[in-house]
Amino acid sequence: MVAKLLRTNDDCVLVAARLVLGIVFFIHGSQKVLGWFGGHTFNETMAVFTDTMHIPAPLAFLAIAAEFGGGIALVLGLLGRVAALGIICVMVVAIVKVHFQNGFFMNWGNVPGKPEGYEYHLLAIALALVILVKGSGALSIDRLLTPSRALPPPSK
Fold first, then answer.
1. Helices 57-76 and 80-94 sit at what angle, rounded to 10 degrees?
2. Cβ neighbours of residue 4 under 8 Å, at least 6 residues apart?
3. What is the pLDDT of residue 115?
4. What is the mean pLDDT of the chain?
5. Angle CA(20)–CA(25)–CA(27) in degrees, nearest 5?
6. In a 3-state reduction of DSSP, which class is residue 21?
7. What is the DSSP string of 59-78?
8. In sequence order, which residues have a C-beta less than 8 Å from that of residue 48 and are 6 or more positions away?
9. H helices then E strands: how many in the chain?
């Protein structure tokens, strides 16, 4: 079971997908956990999730952990599939609870008072799906832990 979870190949494209997604979510998670990059502290973030958005505390904690810890795990390529699944769950909930009602397009702050749509979330889901299906790829701890069980390179 664990071998299948870690199994991946030496695909460098997966490295690019994993690093981009991991860095983006580490930064977003750092906002929520450490207050970096203009974010709030962990306690403030938990209060917004639980009091304002009415997300149960255990699920709010998991969402924050998926962003912060998942971002770190993706950068390292450690349990990439688990991290990707966590990010997919967070993005689906964000679309359903917040962004779907605002339409497709991101506002990117160009229209004051206009809320953000869900296009960014779809892109994050797509990148995470690639990692969920294919694994962490080359230059990952997952690959180092299961070199003999790695998938063969794609046939040409």
1. 130
2. none
3. 83
4. 90
5. 100
6. helix
7. HHHHHHHHHHHHHHHHHHTS
8. 40
9. 7, 0
Query: Looking at the chain, how many residues does it have?
Result: 156
Tokens 């294919």 — which residue?
A: 134
Q: How far is CA 76 from CA 21, 72, 80, in A?
A: 12, 6, 8
Closest CA to 20 of 71, 90, 89: 71
Token pair 């990952």: residue: 140
Tell me the angle at which helices 12-33 and 80-94 cross, rounded to the nearest 10 degrees. Answer: 60
Token digits for 17? 């997908």
Please state which of the ranges 1-15, 21-35, 36-50, 101-115 shows the lowest mean pLDDT. 101-115
Residue-level pLDDT at 150: 46
The answer to whether the CB of 33 falls within 8 A of the CB of 45 is yes
Q: Could you report how far apart the first and last alpha carbons of the chain are, in Å?
A: 29
**Separation between Cα atoms, residue 48 and residue 114, nearest integer Å:** 20
